[in-house]
Amino acid sequence: MKLAVFDFDSTLMDGETIDILAFAYGVGDEIKTITDKAMAGEIDFYESLKKRVSLLRGMPYKEVQNICKNLPYIDGAKETIKSLQTAGYTVVCLSGGFRVATKYAKNILGFDAEFSNILHQKDGYLTGQVGGEMMFEFSKGDMINRLQTLLKIDIEDTITIGDGANDISMFDYSSKKVAFCAKPALQKKANIIIKKKNLTEILKYI
Fold first, then answer.
1. Cα(29)–Cα(119) distance, rounded to whole angstroms?
2. Domain 2-205 class, CATH top level
């Protein structure tokens, strides 16, 4: 058994979910500025996540759901996941974004499991609060370590794919560290760099 772990935003999905929600709610420029700094590793991910979600307070949850069911996926995502599974990989998505997006994407793209954060909503509106397992810079690496223990998979049989600074912790638990159309902070830590925006490029290294 082998393990392939993908980031979601700007890796499996073409964009950042929180930025797309923000522009729909009229706070896009403010949130995107924070997102860009977080993905570049210039500010703490946890603090940036809380700040960005707070700016979505009052957004109708039905609108959030509708947007997350219509997100654009990266070219080759579905084909790559299927090819990895055929090659014996369990494919997992770890996202610092939101389950309202990743849970739906699981059914579309076909990965085996997803772990992400929860946008808190009450009475049909976002409260501006967020919780979950993927809120910290170390979260993804910690989750991979637990999955490897559970599934009895070692580092040599693990590949990780991401684009931003909050994906760096994944690389400590994988032999193949893929920076996909990534920020410089992640490229520096990678041993595979892909600049073409098509996930099937990964299959050349499997």
1. 20
2. alpha beta
